[in-house]
Write a structure and sequence with these properties.
Elements (H helix, E strand, L loop, with lengths): L5 E4 L11 H4 L5 E4 L2 H11 L12
Parallel strand pairs: 1-2
């Protein structure tokens, strides 16, 4: 029997400090990697006229 151990990677918020993606990699067999650009485009597509977005400077 094969069990796939999947992990979401790349979702760390830089404001909260470094993530531990590298630490879990030896223990997983597959991963989903966050795509920040796709997430941003999805949010933009859902916006309506008049919506206000506050951006935090990096």
């Amino acid at each position: 029997m094969y069990i796939d151990i999947n992990c979401d990677l790349g979702e760390t918020d830089p404001a909260t400090g470094p993530g531990n993606d590298e630490a879990v990699m030896p223990f997983i067999s597959s991963a989903r990697i966050a795509n920040v650009i796709a997430a941003d485009l999805t949010l933009i597509a859902q916006m309506r006229p008049g919506d206000i977005i506050w951006f935090k400077e990096a």
